[in-house]
Write a structure and sequence with these properties.
With 310 residues, the chain is an alpha+beta fold. It is built from 12 helices and 10 strands. The chain folds into 2 domains: 163 residues, NADH Oxidase; 106 residues, no CATH class. The chain is globular and about 65 Å long. One of its GO terms (cellular component) is cytoplasm.
C-alpha cells in the first residue's frame, strides 16, 4: 500500500513536470482549521469590498471534500508566468500575469491532461480541476503541500523562484504520499508593506482587498475612489508592486510557455496610444487575454482615471 502511494505520487509529479508545471506538491484533503477564523475575520471586516462572491460557499472554501465527495488528496501545482520582456517604462501598466493568453484556458488544458494521465496509468480516479474559479483557497493548499510559504503580501513565496506563478489544483479521491509545509523566510522584511501605494497590506499576511489597486482596476464595477487618484502608480489593470519589490523575486526566471508570451503591441504602447484605445483595438489586442475581464469600458475608465478624468 505504501509502495503504491510512493509510486503513484512519483508518477503524478513526473507528469506534472512534463506538462510544464514549475512544481507539484500534495496534501491530505480535509478541513482547513487554521484558515477558518482568518477567512471569517477578513469577511467580517468587509475586506472583500464588492466581491460578494467571496461570501458564498464558506464551508466549501475550507473543506475540499465538500467540493469533491470522497476527496483524499489535493494536488497543488505552480506554473511560471514571469515574462522575458516587459512593457516600456513610461506607460500605463498591466499586471505581468495578464500579458498573454488567459491562464484559465492554458492551465485547465494541462490539468485535464494530468487527470487523464492519472486515469490511464493508475486507474479510475474521481476528481476535479480548479484554476482560481471555484471556492478553493489555492495559496493555503499550496503552502500546506510545501510549495512555499505565505508572504506578508499574502502571496505564496518560494525560495529560488519568488512568486510570479499561477496556482492550480486537482482534488482527487486517491491516497498519496503527502508533502509537509516549509518554514517562513520573510524574516523582518517589510518591503511589500512599505511599497504598497494604497496601504492595502494592513498587517503582515492581511491584505484589505477593498483598498488594493488590483481590486480597483479589475473587480470594482463602480467609479474608482477619488482618494486613490494620486496613488495608482500608472496601473490600468492589476498591480505587481508588492511582488516587484520582494527580494525573493530577484530569482524569478522567464517562463517557457509560449501562450503566455505578450502581444508585442502591448509591450510597446505609450500612454498616448492607450488614451486613444478603441473598442475595436481592445478586442484585437486582448482577444484571449485576462484583460477581457474588465471589458473595454472598464479599461477605458481606468485609463481616464489615471489621466485625471473622473
Amino acid at each position: 500500500m505504501i509502495e503504491n502511494k510512493l509510486k503513484y505520487t512519483k508518477l503524478i509529479k513526473d507528469e506534472a513536470q512534463r506538462l510544464g508545471f514549475m512544481s507539484c506538491g500534495i496534501s491530505k484533503a480535509g478541513f482547513l482549521e487554521q484558515e477558518a477564523p482568518r477567512l471569517e475575520s477578513w469577511l467580517n471586516k468587509n475586506m472583500h469590498g464588492e466581491m460578494a462572491y467571496m461570501e458564498n460557499h464558506f464551508d466549501k472554501r475550507l473543506d475540499p471534500t465538500l467540493l469533491v465527495p470522497g476527496a483524499k488528496s489535493v494536488v497543488s501545482l505552480l506554473l511560471n508566468y514571469y515574462p522575458d520582456e516587459k512593457q516600456r517604462e513610461d506607460t500605463y501598466k498591466i499586471s505581468k500575469y495578464a500579458y498573454g493568453t488567459d491562464y484559465h484556458f492554458v492551465i485547465k488544458d494541462k490539468l485535464k491532461e494530468l487527470l487523464e494521465f492519472i486515469n490511464a496509468n493508475i486507474g479510475e480516479v474521481a476528481g476535479r480541476a480548479f484554476v482560481d474559479s471555484a471556492p478553493v483557497l489555492d495559496k493555503a493548499w499550496a503552502a500546506k503541500s510545501g510549495l512555499g510559504w505565505i508572504g506578508k503580501h499574502s502571496n505564496l513565496l518560494t525560495k529560488q523562484v519568488g512568486s510570479f506563478y499561477f496556482i492550480a489544483e486537482l482534488i482527487i479521491d486517491l491516497d498519496l504520499d503527502y508533502d509537509t509545509p516549509v518554514t517562513d523566510h520573510c524574516g523582518s522584511c517589510t518591503a511589500c508593506i512599505d511599497a504598497c501605494p494604497t496601504n492595502a497590506i494592513v498587517d503582515a499576511h492581511v491584505v484589505d482587498g477593498s483598498k488594493c489597486i488590483s481590486y480597483f482596476t479589475i473587480e470594482l464595477k463602480n467609479e474608482l475612489p477619488s482618494f486613490a487618484q494620486d496613488k495608482m502608480d500608472d496601473w490600468m489593470f492589476g498591480c505587481d508592486v508588492c511582488q516587484d519589490v520582494c527580494p525573493w523575486n530577484r530569482f524569478s526566471k522567464p517562463h517557457n510557455e509560449p501562450l503566455f508570451d505578450a502581444n508585442p503591441e502591448i509591450l510597446k504602447y505609450s500612454k498616448s496610444e492607450w488614451k486613444e484605445l478603441t473598442q475595436e483595438v481592445f478586442s484585437t489586442l486582448f482577444k484571449k487575454s485576462p484583460v477581457k475581464r474588465t471589458k473595454f469600458k472598464g479599461l477605458e475608465r481606468n485609463i481616464n482615471f489615471l489621466n485625471g478624468k473622473f
